[in-house]
Specification:
By secondary structure, this protein is an alpha+beta fold. The protein has helices at about 1-25, 70-80, 130-145, 150-155, 180-185, 195, 255-260, 275-280, 320-325, 330-340, 365-375, 405-420, 435-440, 460-465, 480-490, 495-515, and strands at about 50-55, 85, 100, 105-110, 115-120, 160-165, 170-175, 220-225, 230-235, 245-250, 270, 285-295, 295-300, 390, 395, 395-400, 425-430, 445-455, 515-520, 525-530, 530-535, 550. The protein folds into four domains: about 1-45; about 50-60 and about 215-295 and about 525-563, D-Maltodextrin-Binding Protein, domain 2; about 80-195, Dipeptide-binding Protein, Domain 1 (Dipeptide-binding Protein, domain 1), CATH 3.90.76.10; about 295-520, Dipeptide-binding Protein, Domain 3 (Dipeptide-binding Protein, domain 3), CATH 3.10.105.10. The protein is about 30% helix and about 20% strand. The longest helix has 22 residues, at about 1-25. Residues about 1-45 have low confidence and may be disordered.
Length: about 575
């Protein structure tokens, strides 16, 4: 009887799945129809399904050189290809850490050139073959100041691509350096020259023709309803278990995106945000939470000098900056504002950056030592609870934050209270984000709370914290020749272990001078419908590994019938 009962249940499941397949046009046939009898034993290998992504905002463009918003880059991750991909967690200077993508293999030619051989049979979504000329065209486009791609500074004047034959590309560099393979593969996504070469580059941004969004990746753009949604459809024949369609629905703000999720009109939301939002979703049994580290670090930076190089009357003093850092319990503060899992980084980096090391020396949390350091700098307390004075001047300064970021304001207020206890009067000023950015660029601040997004390379540290970064992201105008020298030396090392040791030494030097207090690197929480399996999230491109995801055919929903 047990055997019979089990057989009955399996038969019932087969009937149910066959009925589900009948309700889903094209399910299991790869979209080609055919009408051949469908073996119910293949029902569990569902060749259908639609994932709906709740997105905050709509990108003006998804063409990679023009895509700067998160959603635009997400779409580009699935439609267009790089020559190769850096493996998740891979070290950019480790040439063994790269995986084939549009290029099947590559080799170093000499100290200033790499040769790439394209994947046999690679084709554009319109059926045309991908050629080396397309790769050369793409490098030229990224280098063009008319397009002004974010990666333009890394391409123009630094590397060029030349077609040696229809399937072979030579990428030549202006100089020898360890991250050549990273630069040749990370920044440039390959575009079809037969589609875009006839369009003047000054018109690319205004071109909204859907027919021009032709890539070679595993998904193609099928439909874009402006102001509403964007639909991708799977093209790769070897991805039968991957979701067949991906639909982005555009919400005007984070609350609208969350409501799409909670109303079950969407399957996934990249990040839920504050703990109260996480709690709302965790109460819905249709979803599970996926936690992953963010490629972001937040900090309070001091305005060490003004545009003329004059030291700030308070924060220009290294002793004061060190005292302020020692007064802060960074780990406790990070988790109080951003929740469990948040870390206080040992320097200007997210936990994803490969140079992270627990051996980096940081100033300890020691309020007694902080008070003693302020005393030695001449800032004395007139009484036990008052603001410190020096020559009649109070120890006071402003913390600038964007009003659009409640977490940064909360951090500033917590720091204000922390420093009050050691005799410091810190005032919090919240301004509109555009004003915030303007004041940073003009140097009109004492201190500010900022956040930077990492890429896999630590090269961005030069823009953020060296003399060369003044006028770029080094808004505090901190200058330390020793740090600059150590950072430059680390960037020349080809061995990952030796390079990391150099970077650690550079971080030790930066922390000792305390131009900033590195406050947090958070954990993001995504919401994912339980019917979606095998979810792996790459924090640098959170939906880029979607071809590895699956949809449980036993949990099909109405949107899976989307044609």
């Amino acid at each position: 009887m047990r055997g019979a009962g089990r057989t009955t249940k399996l038969a019932g499941l087969a009937v149910a799945m066959a009925a589900a397949a009948a309700l889903v046009p094209g399910c299991g046939d790869g979209g080609g129809g055919g009408g051949a009898p469908r073996d119910t034993s293949t029902a569990l290998a569902c060749d259908c399904g639609t994932i709906v992504v709740a997105a905050v905002g709509e990108p003006p463009s998804v063409l990679p050189p023009l895509a700067v918003e998160t959603v635009g880059r997400d779409v580009g991750d699935l439609v267009f290809e790089r020559l190769a991909d850096l493996a998740p967690g891979g070290v950019p200077i480790d040439t063994a850490a790269y995986r084939p993508r549009l290029a099947a293999r590559w080799e170093r030619v000499d100290s200033r050139a790499w040769r790439f051989r394209l994947r046999p049979g690679a084709r554009w979504h319109d059926g045309r073959p991908v050629t080396a000329a397309d790769v050369a065209f793409s490098f030229e486009a990224y280098a063009d100041t008319t397009i002004a791609a974010l990666a333009q500074p890394y391409v123009a004047g630094r590397m060029t691509a030349t077609a040696e034959d229809s399937a072979t590309v030579l990428v030549r560099f202006a100089e020898s350096y360890p991250e050549q393979l990273y630069d040749a593969t990370y920044h440039v996504r390959v575009l079809p020259s037969h589609v875009w070469s006839a369009v003047p580059r000054g018109r690319w941004a205004a071109d909204t023709a859907l027919a021009r969004l032709v890539g070679s990746g595993p998904y193609r753009v099928r439909e874009w309803r402006r102001g509403e949604s964007l639909l991708l459809e799977r093209t790769a024949a070897d991805l039968k278990s991957a979701p067949r369609r991906v639909l982005w629905r555009f919400g005007g703000d984070p609350d609208a995106a969350l409501n799409l999720l909670l109303s079950h009109e969407a399957d996934i939301l990249e990040t839920l945000g504050a703990p109260d939002r996480v709690a709302r979703v965790s109460g819905d049994s249709a979803f599970r939470l996926e936690r992953y580290p963010a490629a972001v670090y937040g900090f309070l930076a001091h305005g060490v000098a003004d545009a003329q190089g004059r030291a700030h009357p308070v924060l220009g003093d290294r002793r004061v900056r060190r005292a302020l850092a020692m007064a802060v319990d960074r780990p406790t503060l990070a988790q109080a504002v951003f929740g469990a899992g948040t870390l206080a980084p040992p320097g200007p980096m997210s936990r994803l950056l490969w140079i992270w090391s627990d051996s980096i020396r940081v100033l300890p949390w020691d309020t007694v030592a902080a008070a003693a350091a302020l005393d030695s700098a001449g800032w004395l307390r007139p009484d036990a609870g008052g603001v410190r004075l020096k020559g009649g001047r109070p120890l006071a300064f402003e913390i600038l934050v964007p009003s659009t970021s409640p977490p940064r304001r909360n951090l500033a207020m917590a720091l204000q209270e922390t420093w009050r206890r050691v005799g410091v009067d810190a005032r919090v000023t919240a301004v509109d984000f555009a004003v915030f950015q303007q004041r940073l660029g003009q140097g009109r601040f004492d201190a500010y709370i900022g956040a930077y997004l990492d890429e896999p390379s630590p090269r961005g540290l030069a823009e953020q914290w060296t003399r060369a970064g003044i006028g770029q992201l080094n808004h505090g105008r901190w200058v330390h020749p020793g740090f600059d020298s150590l950072l430059a030396a680390a960037a020349t090392e080809r061995d990952p272990a030796r390079a990391k040791a150099r970077y650690v030494e550079a971080m030790d030097t930066l922390n000792a001078d305390a131009p900033a207090i590195f406050l947090y690197t958070p954990v993001q929480t995504a919401a994912v419908h339980r019917r979606i399996g095998n979810v792996a999230i790459d924090p640098y491109a959170w939906i880029g590994r979607l071809p590895e995801w699956t949809i449980d055919p036993r949990q099909l929903v109405a949107r899976d019938t989307l044609r």
